[in-house]
Write a structure and sequence with these properties.
single chain, 245 residues, mainly beta, Jelly Rolls, 10 strands, 30% strand, rod-shaped, secreted, C1q_dom, hydroxylation, Collagen/C1q_domain, signal
């Protein structure tokens, strides 16, 4: 029995030595070879996928790339809100004088005025007093032959009179188109020379007439004038109507 067991053991050792010498020391024996079949089991099942490894560290930035082509211009954005005004800047130097402009057309100024005085004593009552001493009548709007001012420019006028009173009481009226507008009365004081005056603003249309006359039947006709005493009548245009030029 010992001899049979020793022989079997020696046979196994020789067989193992033979298999070892026959195999390439760097090549693993194929589990399907006869030398491996005596101790290899059935192939196992594939294992499950392992857990993914952790992310690696970020790499270093690469070199800067070349500039790309310019894209198309986008639509205009909405206007922003107005900002707070900034502080005032320093004052600049005066500029150079500009070129002289062309001469414009002169404006047309309408004029109408007169100033006259009395030369005869005790004018007739109830008719226009004829003031024949002319101080100013450049536009000839006052008619010395009738004693009337005739309006040529529609507008607003100022009229005034200053009369010397002597020998009798005076009551005069300023008329416009046959209608008395204002009255002036002065009572004469004996051995004295007095004054009577009046003034008024009137609106006149072209063709309207204005004059001064003694009011009544002649009892109040003390209007007087001589070489040292004057009785005067005057009027002038303040401003014309806007629609008349």
């Amino acid at each position: 029995m010992r001899s049979s067991a020793g022989f079997f053991l020696c046979s196994l050792l020789l067989l193992a030595t033979h298999c070892t010498q026959a195999a390439d020391p760097e090549v693993q024996p194929d589990p399907k070879t006869p030398c491996a079949n005596w101790m290899g089991g059935a192939p196992g099942y594939p294992g499950h996928n392992g857990v993914p490894g952790r992310d690696g560290k970020d790499g270093r930035d690469g070199l800067k790339g070349e500039k790309g082509e310019e894209g198309m211009q986008g639509p205009k954005g909405d206007q922003g809100e107005t900002g707070i005004p900034g502080s005032e800047g320093p004052r600049g130097f005066p500029g150079q004088p500009g070129q002289k402009g062309e001469k414009g057309e002169g404006s047309f100024v309408q004029r109408s005025a007169f100033s006259v005085g009395l030369t005869e004593r005790a004018p007739h009552p109830n008719v226009p007093i004829r003031f024949t001493k002319i101080f100013y009548n450049e536009q000839n709007h006052y008619d010395a032959t009738t004693g009337k001012f005739v309006c040529s420019i529609s507008g607003t006028y100022y009229f005034a009179y200053h009369l010397t009173v002597y020998l009798s009481d005076v009551k005069v009226s300023l008329y416009k188109k046959d209608k008395a507008v204002i009255f002036t009365y002065d009572q004469f004081q004996k051995n004295n020379v007095d004054q009577a005056s009046g003034s008024v603003l009137l609106h006149l249309n072209s063709g309207d007439e204005v004059w001064l006359q003694v009011y009544g039947d002649g009892d109040n006709n003390g209007v007087y004038a001589d070489n040292i005493n004057d009785s005067t009548f005057m009027g002038f245009l303040l401003y014309p109507d806007l629609d008349v030029h």
